[in-house]
Design brief:
Shape: elongated
Number of helices: 8
Distance between the termini: 178 Å
Radius of gyration: 50 Å
Order of helices and strands: HHHHEEEHHHEEEH
Structural class: alpha+beta
Length: 280
């Protein structure tokens, strides 16, 4: 038996494995010999987690070559967007120096893909300065005299210049009154509708309200109005030639009556007229 055991050991331990299988489980030193028991948690393999600070940075998170490409692409998109807005604006804007000089270029950009069928301003903005002047016939102790032309529009402009809360009356009363008169009369100053007489009385009262603030040393018996219309000069870089000389529209002389005067002056005028009749 000893010889057999030695032979088995010399042969590489062929009989050792059957003997180990015959051992009790607690005596085995192989994996199968480990008793079943609650196993300890097995650590999972570590997975690299991306740094949150390294993501979500936009262009700053790219490498330098890609940053250059992205910056160029954004610049190109911005340039195209600005060009599109400018071309559409010039296309729908009223005729001006730029559209006259580059009209064909604007049309080539707009048509047919970006055609617009509406206008930016309706009607076109006024490109003229309109001033209302007045002069008066004054009768005083030294006889009759005619005052110089006074620019009422300029006085309204001075009243609102530099004011944070300009008066609506100073801005629009005279301007709207004159527009009312011009639109209600033809070029010969004849009423062209039922509102002609109303517009005349309105502008006369506005004028006498302004003149009543001055002392001319006598009584105003007649007034005369005119408008001075001058085109706005083109900018220095424009080749457009426009005459800026004023064009005048002169109205006939109007005789002042008590209805044209402010309330206090009208009452005083009526009292004087009534007193004159009693003296007779």
């Amino acid at each position: 038996m000893d010889s057999d055991h030695d032979r088995s050991s010399a042969d590489g331990g062929k009989d050792a494995w059957p003997q180990a299988l015959n051992r009790p489980p607690e005596a085995r030193d192989t994996p199968e010999a480990i008793p079943s028991a609650p196993s300890a948690p097995v650590a999972e393999p570590l997975v690299p987690v991306a740094d949150p600070l390294a993501t979500g940075r936009g262009i700053a998170g790219l490498s330098f070559p890609y940053q250059v490409v992205a910056a160029l692409a954004l610049s190109l998109i911005g340039l195209l967007a600005c060009t599109q807005v400018a071309m559409v604006f010039l296309h729908v804007a009223p005729s001006n120096t730029l559209t006259k000089q580059h009209g064909k270029t604007i049309d080539r950009w707009i048509y047919p893909e970006f055609e617009q069928n509406w206008k930016l301003f309706a009607p076109n903005p006024l490109q003229q300065n309109v001033a209302v002047h007045v002069r008066a016939d004054v009768v005083g102790a030294d006889g009759r005299r005619t005052t110089r032309w006074m620019n009422l529009t300029h006085e309204d402009g001075e009243a609102i210049r530099g004011s944070f809360f300009p008066s609506h009356v100073n801005q629009n009363e005279l301007r709207r009154g004159w527009d009312f008169y011009v639109n209600s009369h033809d070029s010969e100053n004849r009423p062209n509708g039922l509102r002609g007489d109303l517009s005349e009385r309105y502008i006369r009262r506005i004028t006498m309200l302004r003149l009543s603030e001055r002392d001319y040393g006598g009584t105003i018996e007649r007034i005369q109005l005119r408008s001075a219309t001058s085109s706005i000069a083109p900018p220095p870089w424009s080749n457009e030639k426009i005459s800026t000389r004023p064009v005048y529209r002169v109205l006939p002389w109007w005789t002042v009556n008590p209805d044209d005067l402010p309330a206090r002056d009208a009452e005083q005028s009526r009292d004087e007229a009534h007193g004159g009749e009693e003296n007779r």
